[in-house]
Design a protein that fits this description.
The chain is of the alpha+beta class and 118 residues long. It has one domain: HIT family, subunit A. Strands 1-2-3-5-4 form a five-stranded antiparallel beta sheet, covered by helices on one side. Strand 2 and strand 3 form a beta hairpin. The radius of gyration is 14 Å and the shape is globular. The relative contact order is 0.22. The protein binds adenosine monophosphate. Adenosine monophosphate (AMP) binds next to loops.
Length: 118
């Protein structure tokens, strides 16, 4: 499996500020934010794409959603945020290590979903 920058970040090989971390995931700010609040929830397990996850990952995937909600609350955007997973090149994915985007702090009620991260 090819390593990615997120593998290096989750293993601590590239120094990063973790907004949150536990045994299963880390949370960092996106280097190229598409909204005033734009953070990434990255599992330590290097699953390339969402579709590469399997039933053994069920608890992990649920955990990532719980962390997303908690981090959004901690960042003060718990009432208005968007959670995005890009899957595959055609879905806008550029880093092939599963991650969730939290976007918040701007109007999320208008425009196409696809415009968010392209
Ligand atoms: P995606 O297009 O869904 O694969 O998202 C990848 C995201 O990772 C993009 O929003 C990038 O801006 C972000 N990104 C890439 N490298 C880094 C990095 N070193 N630290 C933080 N965010 C990064």
């Amino acid at each position: 499996m090819t390593d990615t920058i997120f593998g290096k970040i989750t293993r601590g090989e590239i120094p990063s500020d973790f907004l949150f971390e536990d045994d299963h995931c880390v949370v960092i700010r996106d280097i190229n934010p598409q909204a005033p609040t734009h953070v990434l929830i990255i599992p330590r397990k290097p699953i390339p794409r969402l579709v590469d996850s399997d039933p053994d990952d069920q608890a992990l995937l649920g955990h990532l959603l719980l962390v997303a909600g908690r981090v959004a609350e901690d960042l003060g955007v718990g009432d208005a945020f968007r959670l995005i997973i890009n899957n595959g090149e055609g879905g806008g994915q550029t880093v092939f290590h599963l991650h969730l985007h939290i976007l918040a702090g701007r109007d999320m009620t208008e425009g196409q979903l696809s415009a968010d991260l392209n």
